[in-house]
Amino acid sequence: MRIGLLTEGGYPYVSGDAGLWCDQLVRGLGRHTFDIYALSRTERQEDQGWIRLPPQVGRVRTAPLWTAHDDGVVHGRRARRRFSEAYGELLAAVCGGPRAASPEAPGVPGVPADSVGAEADRFASALYGLAELARDEGGLAGALRSENAVRVLERACRAPGALRTARTARVPDLLTVAAHIERALRPLSLDWYEDDALGSADLCHAAGGGAAALPGLLARHFLGVPLLVTEYGVHLRAHYLAAATLEEAPAVRALLAAFHGRLATEVYRAAVLITPGNAHARRWQERCGADRAKLRTVHPGMEAARFADVGEGVPGSRCADPDTLVWVGRVEPAKDLISLLHSFAEIRRAEPRTRLRIVGAPAEDPDAAAYLAHCKALAAQLFPDEAEGVHAVGDNPVSFEEIGGPEIPSLAEAYACGALVVLSSVVEGFPVSLVEAMLCGRATVSTDVGAVVEVIGGTGLVVPPRNPRALAEACVALLSDPERRERLGAAARARALELFTVDQNITAFHGIYLEIVSHSPVRRLVVDDEGEPLPFGVPAEAHVPGRWTENRFMTACRPRWAEGAPVRATEPPSTPVPVSVGEGA
């Protein structure tokens, strides 16, 4: 079958989110054809280029979210009126109140569920109205950046029944919100929604919510292509966390939260299936309006082979130092290394020979480097250089290291150098570092955040976050009991091999693809070389993986904007052909 893989800020670019699992998925399902539709977030990401793509990638089409191209479209009076009506309805649904969670409506105490559903339908109708206008007129880039768009937003904020916070929005706030919404709606103006683009796919697989899923919504609306949404990190949750760190006006935060909430609701409603990566993400999706019957948990897959030597204790692999704790990850405030250092001070009182190795580089966040410097300063203050005797050189029991040096040449070596792996985060989605430690056969002590409990099961110790004393007591308990530590490590490796490998991830998605296509096939009409309908042109094997037919397809139920002769889908080139927005979007 042909899969339209939709990404934002990730695959096939060298840097970005979700790149690894997308690449594993595409390479693991070699009998399917993948067309990549990628939205880039930054100019730097585009300059870094793509990873090496496998032969099953038929084509790649890209579009930037970081800049807006002037499409040169000038709307006439009728088109401007259509835009004002549709955009006004969209913003009225955004400004009309919080999205939802209570007994009456999942989020708004005292608000009937049918009222919230009506607002969601209003948002969806307006969104598709804008998409149809963009398709008819050739784009919305100029309209969404126009002064008229700001005036429409101001009217929605001042209308009766609007959010109280929205009514306080001033002109700078309106400009900020309008710019953000324009950026989020840029996929509406792309030329991906034709028979020879997303219309030729058997299903669309969005590697995230938000902008990544928006092309899938339009492919479903215009072309009837079923949509699968995978979220290993819930897009709406990520927006909430990011907004909490920004110094924006309350009106800006409220309006953008409402917009992303409405968009998430529509994505979850339109998707045939939703595959969260863990129960923590699943709970978030349910609270954001996802139908529980559509949810199917698919855990991320890890390359177990990289950790096999350490996990199996192969001769020649590094042996764990029984007195060393290891922390591995990106250095950022959410990892709460401050609490870990204070906890280690208590551990040293009970086990004076213990050492702590912090392995990782600062995150890309500009504050991460300052946070790392603060942690190093705190470690120097809490643990002055110590020496075993008067003639020995002093040494700090806490070290900050990065992977790739002579001491730690690889990620597996980082976990191999310690007997116990520690996670001290206060915010966490799916704890990748814990799974890697489990594959290495290491016992773990973790804080109870995100999907930690779901991942480790009963193979490690869990303590409350921001509790250095509890973290210290758990670490001391395992440091002083080598047999228990070894049992937990063996059980952890067995659990990771059962639940978190690439093979199980690929097998799960292979079954989901077949299930979606069998229950929600794209209705197509097969035509011969002269454009005439071909009776019995679709064999029973058409949706079975493999190149069984050479027929060309066109959609049977064409949207009202598609007039004229049938358009056949183009055959995929032998090598991926990059197509940028400037060539047609």
For the structure shown, list the relevant keywords.
alpha/beta, six-stranded parallel beta sheet, seven-stranded parallel beta sheet, 585 residues
Detailed description of the structure:
- It is a single chain.
- The protein has 585 residues and is of the alpha/beta class.
- It has helices spanning 19-28, 43-48, 77-95, 113-137, 141-144, 147-158, 171-184, 214-223, 235-244, 250-270, 279-287, 308-312, 337-350, 366-382, 411-416, 432-439, 452-456, 468-479, 482-499, 502-519, and strands spanning 2-8, 33-40, 57-64, 203-206, 227-231, 273-276, 321-328, 355-359, 398-401, 418-423, 443-447, 461-463, 524-527, 552-555, 578-579.
- It has a seven-stranded parallel β-sheet with strand order 6-5-4-1-2-3-15, with helices on both faces. Strands 9-8-7-10-11-12 form a six-stranded parallel β-sheet, sandwiched between helices.
- Helix 3 runs antiparallel to helix 4 (113-137) and helix 7 packs parallel to helix 10.
- Residues 98-111 and 546-573 have low confidence and may be disordered.
Summarize this, please?
The protein contains 20 helices and 15 strands. By secondary structure, the chain is an alpha/beta fold. Helix 6 packs across helix 7.
